[in-house]
Design a protein that fits this description.
Low-confidence stretches: 267-281
CATH class of the largest domain: Alpha Beta
Number of strands: 19
Number of helices: 8
Strand content: 25-35%
CATH topology of the largest domain: D-amino Acid Aminotransferase, Chain A, domain 1
Mean pLDDT: 91
CATH architecture of the largest domain: 2-Layer Sandwich
Largest sheet: 6 strands, mixed
Shape: elongated
Length: about 350
Amino acid sequence: MLAKLSRDLPEGDGLLYEPKWDGFRCIVFRDGHEVTLGSRNEKPMDRYFPELCDSLRTNLPDRCVVDGEIVIATDHGLDFDALQMRIHPAESRVKKLSAEIPSSFVAFDLLALDDTDLREEPFATRRAQLEKMGKKFKPPVYVTPLTDDVTLAGNWFERFEGAGLDGVVVKRKDLHYCEDQRVMLKVKHQRTCDCVVAGFRWHKSGGVIGSLLLGLYDGDGNLHHVGVAGAFTMARRKELVDELEPYRENALDGHPWAEWVEAMTASGGRMPGGLSRWSQGKDMSWEPLRPELVCEVSYEHMQGDRFRHAAHFQHWRPDRDPKSCTYDQLEVVVPSELADVFGA
């Protein structure tokens, strides 16, 4: 069951609110000793999280199906970078990381228990059974907090971001479990930032712009690649070809990322953002632009020193000096302990 994006937190009778976890969506199937972790695209993930399978065998009933999120919980909140590291093809590496950065599972829905299929039951009924079952849970298996108080949900929205959560999920009490349908709401943080456009990628269709490579300067004057802006209409992609063309001339001369291109040319090495096991075979090559263009983008939140998801282009900022596009303009989120989330 999926969620559609909302920028406002709705209120009304019959609505329930949960913190939105930043991890891997996962449906757990348990049948006796057998535990399968199903991903969003229905690929099993249990080989990557053996320690979590052991914990779920200890905590869950013998036969059940539970919807939730796999996360990496640290002293400074959720760590999505560490979670990505866990998807590794080498079994020895998986075993090593399972001990060094163990995972947790946060349950937020119960789909089946024993011989009973609960998907046609109202969410409130499923949640009550999950809470009853969750009374016996021990870390690293948890039940997500829930409230029907929109004021408290708004407080969570602001306060829990510092623990690595990226918003609030809203569900109706009478909601059945509807696979592949966007019947929930997700309310996520959104901010704006002025970035330097220092390169671009061609669209897979060819001849039009696919995405813009964005940069921000640090305090020492170094331009860091912080993410991309994409999701343009085809008409806008065509327009961007002409808009970017003047900045392609002699773009590598003194370009702050020139060494990426030189490294690839010299050794066939991979530049940051190049092909990896995360890019699933996509062409991630790029073309440089003279770092003179500034655009305003909207983004949801930062993951370390870069955008967690692709940013959204708003408009050009010809009034801005590229050197003024620094990390200082980003809003600093007050750190929060994950214990605060579960204490809720």
